[in-house]
Amino acid sequence: MTELLGLVFSPWTEKARWALDVRGVPYTFRHYQPLVGEPALRVKLRRLTGRVSVPVLTADDGRVLADSADIARWADGRGAGPTLFPAEHEAEIARLIDLSERALAAGRARALSRMLADDEALAEMAPRPIRRAHVALAARLGGLGVRRTLRKYGGHEDGAEAHLRTMLAALDELRATLARSSPPGDGPRTLLGRFTFADIAMSQVLVNVAPPAALKLGAASRRSFSDPDLRDRYADLIAWRDELYRAFRTS
């Protein structure tokens, strides 16, 4: 069976899972363990050097896909359900995917920087047996992992203000695109007048503003991924995201 390797709290993994689920494509989900799982991941991707990350899908035909949008396109050719990449909207979907990626990278840098100041959140990043045995050690290990992630993906050196500007620009564009879209006959408003992968991609930007209730995060980690100022400023977008989940994220 098709296997998806990912992180349950990652918005990139959620983009891939949502696409697979909404198309009704059967798959097995396997949780990726950073550091410990990296050697096997490199073998799977045939990439012995350079950066590797999840989600990674191993299809039942042997194909290996290592990008959430590529996984969604693969899912769009299988199963049933809403067409995620309608041909008439290809250019706009590509634009919104790119916007989502830039905003998610900025949001990750901001959230992980907040996490570095929260030992309880850092401890939640460590494996549960270590947390149970030694909370202080778990926090130190979590800190090592968070710093490694910041170095791995870069961008943190751009500074908090640059990341905030990226987030604000993406959220303002999301609001403007929604305002331009056709009102729905029923259900939530969508970015292109119908549910597509653009909605999935852009809804994930809000993970770093107010994580959805369905996201599996510890209380302290949820605190690190939340931004009270942006949450109040973009309450309308959070409400849109939550309505989108209720309408299209049933699996």
Mean pLDDT over the full residue set:
91
Count up the helices: 12
Write down the overall geometry.
Answer: globular
Strand portion = 5-15%
**How would you classify the quaternary structure?**
single chain
The helix content, as a percent range, equals 55-70%
Computed CA radius of gyration, to the nearest angstrom: 18 Å
- Biggest β-sheet: strands ordered side by side in the sheet: 2-1-3-4
**Biggest sheet, in brief?**
4 strands, mixed
Uncertain parts:
none
Query: Pairing-aware structural class of the strands and helices?
Result: mainly alpha
CA distance, first residue to last residue: 18 Å
Helix-strand string: EHEHEEHHHHHHHHHH
Structure description:
- This protein is mainly α and 251 residues long.
- The chain folds into two domains: 3-76, Glutaredoxin, CATH 3.40.30; 87-248.
- The protein has twelve helices and four strands, in the order E-H-E-H-E-E-H-H-H-H-H-H-H-H-H-H.
- Strands 2-1-3-4 form a four-stranded mixed β-sheet.
- Strand 3 and strand 4 (64-65) form a beta hairpin.
- Helix 4 (90-115) packs antiparallel against helix 7 (135-153).
